[in-house]
Design brief:
Helix content: 40-55%
Number of strands: 5
Protein name: DNA transposition AAA+ family ATPase
Strand content: 5-15%
CATH class of the largest domain: Alpha Beta
Pfam families: AAA_22 (PF13401)
CATH topology of the largest domain: Rossmann fold
GO molecular function: ATP hydrolysis activity; DNA binding
Largest sheet: 5 strands, parallel
Length: 275
């Protein structure tokens, strides 16, 4: 990301991201983990002191997701509809689907909206999780876990129709579920939550609830709606192949790939071989 054209593109992406999300450059800098001066220099064409690694870091965060080619899929439209329903009715939803079904793509597309917060759960400890959530909410705060959860609840309760989305929710351990239980109870009249994970996420909760694991039944009951993503149909596969330059005569060879991730890999391999 060293060319003038690329830097201009990043500058425009910063401004567009702030506009869509309804946040300031200072808030964006906190989310990315760079200084506010860095973003200010990027947006004011003061580029001489900014190295390539910094440009790449910012671009990775603000670049538009490449989701326009799959906006017509049933799964993406359903996920977006669920998100809006959750906002309106302050629901906690469970979105499940096998690997490659498009959960993360859908959540990242939804996350481009104002007051929408996407967190990828990667086995963080509770304090790490709530510190990251705080940065997304626009503040930098470390304290006791109790205080960090309280600060997050206070921030979510003053926003207009906020939506918190947690990806890889199937990895949430029982301790994290109990902390999210508290977060849900303290924000349920103002904040929607969407939990996305593999089908075993729901299955594990059901099994633990049957075994009377402490707190699990109560948490499971708070998930108002579950939805499982469906396999791609042939018309969707035709559309995605067409958008990626696959000749119509060869589209049928891709019908076996019912998951978006598998289809994307097959298209990439085809285009790589035939370039």
């Amino acid at each position: 990301m060293t060319k003038l054209q690329e830097k201009t593109q990043i500058k425009e992406a910063i401004e567009e991201y702030c506009r869509i999300k309804g946040i300031s450059r200072n808030e964006l800098a906190l989310q990315i983990g760079v200084s506010s001066a860095t973003l200010s220099n990027m947006c004011n064409d003061k580029w001489n002191s900014i190295d390539d690694k910094m440009w790449k870091k910012v671009w990775h965060f603000v670049r538009p997701e490449s989701t326009h080619k799959i906006f017509h899929t049933h799964n993406l439209k359903t996920a977006m509809g669920m998100a809006e329903k959750a906002r309106k009715h302050k629901l906690m939803l469970g979105l499940i689907g096998d690997t490659g079904m498009g959960k993360t793509v859908a959540l990242k597309a939804i996350a481009r909206n104002e007051n929408t917060f996407y967190l990828y759960f990667d086995n963080q400890r509770p304090k790490q999780f709530f510190y990251q959530l705080g940065k997304l909410l626009g503040y930098d705060f470390e304290g006791s876990l109790y205080d960090m959860i309280g600060r997050a609840c206070d921030a979510l309760n003053v926003l207009e129709e906020p939506l918190l989305m947690i990806d890889e929710a199937g990895k949430l351990n029982d301790v994290m579920l109990m902390h999210l239980h508290v977060l849900r109870d303290r924000t349920m009249h103002n904040c929607a939550i969407m939990l996305a994970g593999m089908p075993y996420f729901k299955l594990n909760l059901e099994n633990k609830a049957k075994k009377q694991k402490i707190g699990i039944s109560e948490f499971y009951r708070r998930i108002n709606i579950w939805h499982e993503l469906e396999a791609l149909n042939r018309s969707e596969i035709d559309f995605i192949c067409e958008q990626n330059g696959i000749p119509k005569s060869e589209t049928k060879d891709f019908y076996q790939h019912k998951r978006f991730g598998d289809l994307s890999n097959a298209i990439l391999l085809y285009n790589t071989i035939n370039e």
